[in-house]
Every structure is written in C-alpha cells, then in structure tokens.
Design brief:
mainly alpha, transmembrane, transmembrane helix, metalloprotease, hydrolase
Length: 300
C-alpha cells in the first residue's frame, strides 16, 4: 500500500505544483484559474483521502481493534512493516490538515458574512460614504459591488465604469469560489501553497480582460486599475477587488496595454492528468485496504 501513499501524498502534489507553474500563464487567465484551482483541489483531496486510508490502517493494526472486529492485527501491520512510520504519521498529518482546512473554511465564511453585512438593500452597485478608497465585489444572490465615495472621487467617470465592470466580471464568473477552492487546497497540502496566490492573480487578470471587452478599451481599464491601486489602502479582505488580492499590478497593467494573446488549451491536460491519476491511485489505495482487511479476517 505504501506506493499509494508515496505517490498521492509525497510525489503527486509536488509534480502538480510544478506543472501548474509551467502551464498557468500559457492559458487564457479565466481558463487558467479553473485549471489551477481544480487541479490543486483534486490533488489535495486525494492526499487527504490517502492520509485517511493510512490513518484507518493505523487503527486497524491495533490488536484490540483486530480482536473486536475479527481480523489479524499482525497481518494488517505486516503490509507496511517496512515503513511502520507511515500509518502513524498519517494520523498526525490528517489531523493537522483537516484542522487547517476547517479553520480556513470558517474564515472564508466569516469574511463573506462581514462583506455581505455592508450590502443591505437592493442596489447592485452600492456607494458607501467612506474616506478609504475601496471598490470590491461581494458574491451572493444577487451579488453586490461596493464602491466608497473616496474611490469614486479618485477616478474619472470612465475609469469608475471600468472598475465596476471589473467587479461585475468577478461576480459573473464566480471567481470567489475558485479563490476559496485554491485557498483550501493550499492549506490541505503545503506543496500547493503557491496555487492560492496565483489563482488570485489569474482571476484578477480574467476580470481585467472581461472589463476591457465590456468597456471597449484596454487602455482605459489599465489606467483605471493603476489609479485605483495607487489610491487604495491595504486590502481589507472583504471581497475580490481590482486593486487588492491577486496583486502584481504592474504586470496586469502591462498585459492590458499589450494586445490579447490566445492561449494554448492543450497545456491544461498536463496538470489535469496528474490530478486525475492521483485520484485514481487513491481509489486503489482504499480498495487495497479493504482487500487487506478481508485477508486479515480470513487469517485470524
């Protein structure tokens, strides 16, 4: 069984992270965000499932458990006796990972609730009286766009339209889900930490491109993003915003000032194939554990 642990917990996450680094910027930003987030999420889920399988094996090889369920704990133990540390380590890693994912998920829900508390009412675009220059999207049904009076004063009417189009793109594409998915994957497995930061960048780039199409002028969006980022304070983390999370403002502005480049879709197959392989391998690990317990039951 150890080969499953080695692949899904140790090797595949590192390979997927490397593949995503190579592929992410070769794809259109919207597609890249989906590929990066879902490949990472599948890889993290497979890793956690493998840890669960080995944690169950650690429990199954306890003599008292074997006696209670009618199987040979010795037979279960012998399957990975050459790497006796793996099942025990899996218990600790699983506990730490599940705790980290739970804490991150609760934080996402709390931040989203705080953001939604600012958007009572029916207006799609809500202008709040505030001296801090802010503009961000708050997902929901329906979603809301929040713009402070200070941000409105920093932008021309055309630039404000571009920023609002950018925030609307976040809502239309459901970017907050991809960001949350990537964040959970990153805390689920440390090898995927880069993913969360880059998905943030990719969703901002995708919103930039959608805003440019909506406004009809890439240069206008570039100027609006640059001006908004100079005016905005450090991000509050209440929503996706043109000047906040995802960063790399000079890189985003430079991309908008250049003509759009078509991405090569075949590159997405590399990380997706690696992620799929680790899911399949994890399924085999679960089946191997079942077969091992059946064998141990017959030999008890």
């Amino acid at each position: 069984m150890f080969d499953h642990f080695a692949w899904s917990v140790l090797v595949a996450p590192a390979l997927v992270s490397i593949a995503l680094r190579l592929v992410a910027d070769r794809l259109p930003p919207g597609r890249g965000a989906y590929v990066v987030a879902w490949s990472a999420a599948a890889t993290a889920a497979a890793s956690l499932a493998n840890l669960l399988v080995f944690a169950l094996k650690a429990v199954a090889q306890v003599p008292a458990v074997g006696t209670a369920f009618g199987w040979s704990a010795h037979t279960v133990h012998q399957d990975t006796a050459h790497v006796a540390w793996a099942p025990i380590l899996s218990v600790g890693l699983l506990t730490a990972s599940v705790t980290a994912v739970s804490v991150k998920a609760r934080r996402h829900r709390r931040v989203l609730a705080e953001a939604r508390s600012l958007t009572d009412g029916t207006a799609t675009v809500l202008v709040l009286p505030d001296e801090r220059p802010e503009a961000f999207a708050v997902p929901g049904r329906p979603g809301r766009i929040v713009v402070t009076t200070a941000m409105r004063e920093h932008l021309t009417a055309t630039q404000l339209d571009a920023v609002i189009a950018h925030e609307q793109a976040h809502l239309d594409a459901g970017h907050h889900r991809l960001v949350a998915l990537a964040d959970l994957a990153a805390v689920g497995h440390p090898a995927l930490w880069w993913v969360a930061r880059h998905v943030g960048y990719l969703v901002e780039r995708d919103a930039d491109e959608q805003a440019a199409r909506a406004v009809g002028n890439r240069r206008t969006v570039a100027h609006a993003i640059g001006r908004a980022s100079l005016a905005a304070p450090p991000a509050l983390g209440l929503g996706l915003n043109a000047a906040g999370r995802g960063g790399a403002i000079p890189r985003r502005v430079a991309s908008l000032l250049d003509p759009p480049r078509p991405g090569a879709s075949h590159w997405q197959l590399l990380p997706l194939a690696l992620a799929a392989s680790t899911l399949v391998w994890t399924g085999e690990a679960a089946w191997d554990l079942i077969e091992l317990l059946l064998k141990a039951g017959m030999g008890s």
